[in-house]
Amino acid sequence: MSVIAAVLIVFATIVAMEGVAWASHKYVMHGFAWAWHRDHHEPHGNVLEKNDLFALVGAAMSIAMFALGSPWIMGEGAWPPATWIGLGILAYGVIYTLVHDGLVHQRYFRWVPRSGYARRLVQAHRLHHATVGKEGGVSFGFVFARDPARLKAELKAQREAGIAVVRDSAGA
């Protein structure tokens, strides 16, 4: 496999993982796996959250792809592109950790962006946390953020329709 093809697979996987993360966040974390995700939406003084278990799921996906691409594990049945998909999943996990846990929730460092896309990410995710409970909500992605003004309008519409309970400080 050429270097260009490998790089393209890694990049495409990173982009695709944002879609996987969005769908997982909206339908799994705010659905049947709310028991793991709930503490992420509630104040607590713990260093770790049950929500952090989802990182292990992502790691397992990456490891599985590395295994599928490995001739040492799979022998003649190895599928080389799987190695690059595994690397893309790993890269997305690093990006997620730095952006979501680091920048947005400031678990690893303290920096409040005053402008630009980093500020937009923080605003969008804070609007995601504006709802009480698992129902309703906006901005389920982690790296791509929609316009906060549109997200506020969507939250307001959800509140008025009775779909979501929005905290008073959300500005919706």
TrEMBL record:
Keywords of this entry: Carotenoid biosynthesis, Membrane, Oxidoreductase, Transmembrane, Transmembrane helix
Lineage of producing organism: Bacteria, Pseudomonadati, Pseudomonadota, Alphaproteobacteria, Sphingomonadales
Keyword flag Transmembrane: yes
Record field: transmembrane: 53-74, 81-99
Superkingdom of the organism of origin: Bacteria
Family to which this protein belongs: Belongs to the sterol desaturase family.
UniProt-listed InterPro entries: BETA-OHASE-like (IPR045019), Fatty_acid_hydroxylase (IPR006694)
Name the record gives this protein: Beta-carotene hydroxylase
